[in-house]
Inverse folding.
């Protein structure tokens, strides 16, 4: 079982990165969430923003909270989405947004110290 999205493309520049992701159908996070209609849990979307942010951006390591987190459209198995990450070092905020041709799926700010 997979625990991460498949990265198909990366665009980097000036404190920002956009990742083209495919959401594998065999993600362990789909087990039980929900059996008849699996969706990617919001907590996983925030976790991936943090993990991928640390891989591609120079981020502080300490989590200090979240602001304005919104989940607008569900993400299903085998979906293709783009994850945009931007770090504002002056404010200590990691801005994240999941988008696809279907619109915005989730967005918010993660506070880091």
């Amino acid at each position: 079982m997979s625990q991460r999205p498949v990265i198909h493309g990366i665009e980097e520049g000036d404190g920002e990165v956009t990742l083209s992701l495919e959401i594998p159908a065999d993600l362990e996070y789909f087990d039980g969430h929900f059996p008849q209609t699996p969706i990617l849990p919001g907590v996983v979307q925030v976790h991936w923003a943090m993990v991928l942010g640390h891989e591609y951006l120079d981020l502080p390591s300490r989590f200090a909270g979240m602001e304005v987190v919104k989940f607008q459209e569900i993400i299903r198995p085998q979906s293709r989405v783009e994850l945009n990450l931007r770090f504002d070092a002056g404010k200590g905020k990691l801005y994240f947004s999941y988008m696809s041709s279907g619109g915005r799926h989730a967005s918010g700010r993660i506070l880091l110290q």
